[in-house]
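Amino acid ABC transporter permease, pasting as requested.
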Amino acid sequence: MLRPSTTLPRRGHGPLWRNPAIRALIVQAVLFLVLAVFIGYLVHNTLLNLEARGIHTGFGFLEGRAGFSIPQTLIEYTSDSTYGRTFVIGLLNTLLVSALGIVAATIIGFLVGIARLSPNWLLARLATIYVETFRNIPLLVQILFWYYAVLRALPSPRQSLSLFDAFFFNVRGMVMPNPQPLDGFAATPWALLVAVVVTILFGLFAKRRQASTGKALPVYWIGLTIIVGLPLIVFLATGSPLEWTLPEMAGFNFRGGVNILPELLALWLALSIYTAAFIAEIVRSGILSVSHGQTEAARSLSLPEAITLRKIVIPQAMRVIIPQMTSQYLNLIKNSSLATAIGYPDLVAVFAGTTLNQTGQAIEIIAMTMAVYLVISLTVSFLMNLYNARTLLKER
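Structure tokens follow.
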């Protein structure tokens, strides 16, 4: 008896355009070709317009003489320096205010975020007022407030506000003692580097010891002691090779010391306080995301609240906090470009401002400025993503 075959007849391959994979490749190739033609048209049209106006392209202008002064320089600079030097100075000033702002905003944000969850009614309400006030006022307005309403309202240098007769606040900024390293000071930074390495190795040892024996070591206190104590011992053993130059009033201004511009102070305060308001809410949401059963289990073990927060709640909350905090760090770095409103010599003001006005090389200068912010942002994102990967739960 013959049974009917259950095998379907084999079909041919058919035309290529019916294959979904082939169609996807064709569509992508067409889109790439259209984009390349469009970009080529823009470049060609731009070059023609620049040539018609007598503007030469290229980066040769970076070797030209700048001819203008910059009020704050972290490296040596004179008016005879090149435009390439102005680019480096603007970049360093941007990195300086961004780093200071990130550190201050993180500390303030964590403290305010934890304070918002405090059982102390007054402390929690003060933290709420802080968040709702500073995150709802535009950042530019806050920068202008700190600069014009606070720092520019300080007295003249002769009537400076004094702190310990070493720190002076006036309309020209803050003047503080200037440390001058002497012979033998080079050993102190090396001691600090060694202390950091030893602390990291000790932390790894303590982690493995706790995993095998269940006994925890006071890593934070021992690490802090090593990082502070070893450089201090080396510093004292070499005869304290550091001399402080105190500022002194000479004429109508101070002589000696380090003068911190009011533009830097205003921008730093505004960026830190504004960003900290958002970080505080991020920290609060991260802590609230931790299951309440975790804190109840800690209380059942009679763990103190501080240890519960530091050992149990915060480590689990960091998985929620880190991605959002990364966005706030990037916003702070990009918002530092608002420094042009008060004349702080950052990358935008010095390079994309004065240098662009003098050279007219708009395409090259704007492209370099955009590339710098892109590289900084990608670097910060990469480092934060590395840390975020370490805080994720690992499946066994």
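Note for the archive: The mean pLDDT is 84.
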